[in-house]
């Protein structure tokens, strides 16, 4: 069971992580000020807060990766997701909170 405010272990991306990436791609492109032809979730960690923070490693082409932070509100508050951070990274960079 995840601890509130603690990060889970890194997991291989699943359908849920990819769905979040698909929905958040336009917002990530806006924050990064560039477009991505490839936007594939590779792995992720979660953090329980007043909702859930998703820290997702996203392959964006070649050896380039983004770390995407998405906050998903609790269902009682609508359950919407918003991009709260984007950082450039490489394939070997571990997922860290930012």
TrEMBL record:
<dbReference type="GO" id="GO:0004869">
    <property type="term" value="F:cysteine-type endopeptidase inhibitor activity"/>
</dbReference>
<dbReference type="GO" id="GO:0002376">
    <property type="term" value="P:immune system process"/>
</dbReference>
<keyword id="KW-0963">Cytoplasm</keyword>
<feature type="domain" description="Cystatin">
    <location>
        <begin position="8"/>
        <end position="76"/>
    </location>
</feature>
<dbReference type="GO" id="GO:0071220">
    <property type="term" value="P:cellular response to bacterial lipoprotein"/>
</dbReference>
<comment type="similarity">
    <text>Belongs to the cystatin family.</text>
</comment>
<protein>
    <recommendedName>
        <fullName>Cystatin-B</fullName>
    </recommendedName>
</protein>
<dbReference type="Pfam" id="PF00031">
    <property type="entry name" value="Cystatin"/>
</dbReference>
<dbReference type="InterPro" id="IPR001713">
    <property type="entry name" value="Prot_inh_stefin"/>
</dbReference>
<dbReference type="GO" id="GO:0005829">
    <property type="term" value="C:cytosol"/>
</dbReference>
<dbReference type="InterPro" id="IPR018073">
    <property type="entry name" value="Prot_inh_cystat_CS"/>
</dbReference>
<keyword id="KW-0789">Thiol protease inhibitor</keyword>
<dbReference type="InterPro" id="IPR000010">
    <property type="entry name" value="Cystatin_dom"/>
</dbReference>
<keyword id="KW-0391">Immunity</keyword>
<keyword id="KW-0646">Protease inhibitor</keyword>
<dbReference type="InterPro" id="IPR046350">
    <property type="entry name" value="Cystatin_sf"/>
</dbReference>
């Amino acid at each position: 069971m995840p601890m509130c405010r603690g990060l889970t272990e890194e997991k291989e991306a699943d359908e849920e992580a990819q769905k979040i990436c698909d929905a958040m791609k336009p917002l990530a492109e806006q924050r990064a000020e560039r477009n991505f032809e490839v936007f594939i979730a590779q792995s992720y960690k979660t953090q329980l807060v007043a909702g859930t923070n998703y820290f997702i490693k996203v392959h964006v082409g070649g050896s380039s990766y983004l770390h995407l932070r998405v906050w998903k509100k609790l269902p009682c508050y609508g359950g919407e997701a918003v991009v709260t951070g984007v950082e450039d990274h490489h394939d070997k960079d571990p997922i860290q909170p930012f």
